[in-house]
Every structure is written in structure tokens, then in C-alpha cells.
Amino acid sequence: MKKRTESTEVDLSGVGLTDADIYEAMKSISGYIDITPGDFKELYCIAYRHAMERFARSVSARDIMATKVVSVQPENPLADVVEVMSEHGVSGVPVLDSEGKVLGVISEKDILFQFLGEKTGNFMAALQRCLHAGGCMAVPVRKLKAGEVMTSPAVTVSEDAFLGEIVELLTQKGINRLPVTDPDGRLAGIIARSDIVNATMRGRTCSWNT
Questions:
Q1: Where are the domains of the chain?
Q2: DSSP character for 162?
Q3: How far is CA 157 from CA 60, 80, 173, in A?
Q4: Class of domain 61-203
Q5: Each residue of 92-101: pLDDT tens digit?
Q6: pLDDT tens string 35-57
Q7: 50 Cβ neighbours under 8 A, 6+ residues apart
Q8: Is beta strand 102-107 parallel, antiparallel or unpaired with respect to 92-96?
Q9: Residue 8 in 3-state DSSP?
Q10: Of 19, 24, 57, nearest to 39 (Cα)?
Q11: Cβ of 6: how many Cβ atoms within 10 Å?
Q12: SS3 37
């Protein structure tokens, strides 16, 4: 077995593997293993990275999306949208036309923008401004419709999009959810960051496939 070279770099920041873990793992294997703890750590991390990359290419949006989606229509008053989001405990909803096609998405950030007149992702900062600085425009906002508040066009993915593509899109766009659409653009489901976490945790189960 090749020894590791000094030029090899392994990122352990997300693995949490300690020397004690390695020694325990090595002791649990029967027989003699001609490998150093350093080699063991490098081998584990490389294998883990390859396994996760393979996992990201094998799981599709269809596999992890929620199919029961809370949605609104463009003519719904913003007050109704807020009520729906509050009742269902969601931080964003897709806006659909009469055929179920995704027109846009309304998030908490979109609603905060209407109240403050400026972009902010900090709800507590928005609340502080409303309470202390007189910057809350509640009365005019009540007259708005969902179609006037939504971010459009919505960022969406197809049902066949792989996990790696979904994670990259969420990160690049700085969003927390992705509507999943069928070939005709109709809503098929939605993926939240929590769905990504759950899928990744399932993929970390240790098994040996031959």
C-alpha cells in the first residue's frame, strides 16, 4: 500500500475524525494491517468524498421533494399569503397560475422588503425598525397582491435534477427552497434546505456494497 506524500491535502473540517476514532477502528479489524493512522485517515476521507459525490449524482429532486406544497395565486392579498405561511409554518410559498404553473415565489425576505422598502434577511432587525424607527409601512402593504410581491421568474428545478445540482443552485442563489416542476412547468413538489440535510444524513449510513 502506498504511503501518503507530503503534497496530499485532505480537508477534515466536515468529517470530525479524530486519532482516537482511527485507533478504535484499526483495533476492531482482525488481523494485522500494514497502514499508519495517517494513511487510514487519508484513505477514509478520500473514500468518503467519493461516496458522497456518487450519492449526489444518484439522488434526484423526485426522491427528496415534498409533494404536498402550500401555494398561493397571484390575485391573493398579501395579508392572506402571510396568514397561509403562518398557519403552515413555512417561510416561503410558490405562486401558481390557474394551470398550476409556477409564476414566482414569495419568501419572508420579499415580505420584509415591502414593509421596509429595502432588502434585509434579518427579521429581528426589521422588527426593531418597525417598532422604534417608524419604518413599518403596514397600511399600504395590506393592499398588495401576491403577484406584486413575488420574486419572478422563480428559480426552479426539474424532477430529474440531481442532489449536487440542487445544492449548488441553493448556494449560488442564496435561497432556502426550490420549486420542482414537471416538463410543462407545473408544480410537482418543493425542496427545502431541511430536505437536503435529511437526504445527506441518510447517505452517510455506512455500508459495504460489492
A1: 1-56, 61-203
A2: B
A3: 10, 27, 13
A4: alpha beta
A5: 999 999 999 9
A6: 888 888 887 787 777 777 777 78
A7: none
A8: antiparallel
A9: coil
A10: 19
A11: 5
A12: helix
